[in-house]
Amino acid sequence: MGVIRRGANGGFKGKAGSVIGSSWKSIDYIKGLYKKRTKPATEEQLMQQAKFTLLMRFLLPLKVFIRVGYGQRKTDTHTPMNVAFQSNLSRAITGDYPDYMLDYSQVRIAEGYSGGGGESASAAAGVLTVTWNTVENGIYAQQPDDRMYIVLYHPGIDQFLTAPTPPQRADGTVEIVLPNHFQTDEGHVWLFTADRKGRNVSRSVYLGEVALV
To answer: What are the structural domains, with CATH classification, of the chain?
Structure first.
C-alpha cells in the first residue's frame, strides 16, 4: 500500500485502473486491486492466520474497552484495535500450530501507567466481587472519580461480563451479579482505570482465574 504525501492532484477516492484510492484520518492511500490467490498458503502463512483468528476473535467483543484502553496510542496512524492486536500478538499466544491458545495472564486490554496494587477478585453466591486500593497516586494524576473498568471472561461459554456502570476509584469495591449461565467453572478477570475523559489510562491488571461456581 502506498501513501500519497505530495502530488499535483492530491489524493483521490475510488478505482483508477489497477489501483484504488482512499483516505483515513486525513491521510491519502493508494493500493493495488485484490488478486485472487492461486497458490496454496504456506505453513508459515497458515500459522499467522491461525494466530490472527484466535486473537481477533477474543479482542473484537472488547472493542468498547479497547477504545479506552488503547485510545491514546498511535491515534494518528493506527486504530486502538490495531494497537491492541499488535501488543498482544507476540505476548499472549502460546502453544504450537495448529493448537494455539491464549495465555490469559499475559493479555492486556489497556496500556498506560503501571501504578496500582491491592486489586483482587472473588466470587461467591452468584456475585463477583472486585476490590482495589482507593489511595490516589499523585505521580500518576489519579483522581477519586477515575473509572474502574472490569472485564470477566468465561471461556466455557465464550462470553464477557462487566459492571452495568463503571464504578469509581473512591468506591473501593464493586459487586457484579452473575447470570445463571455464568455460575459454572472458572473465569478470568482484568481491571484498568481511566479518568473521566479517557486520557489518563492505566495498564490493565490480570486479577487471575476465579471459581464462579
So the answer is: 8-37 (no CATH), 39-111 (no CATH), 112-213 (2.60.40.10)
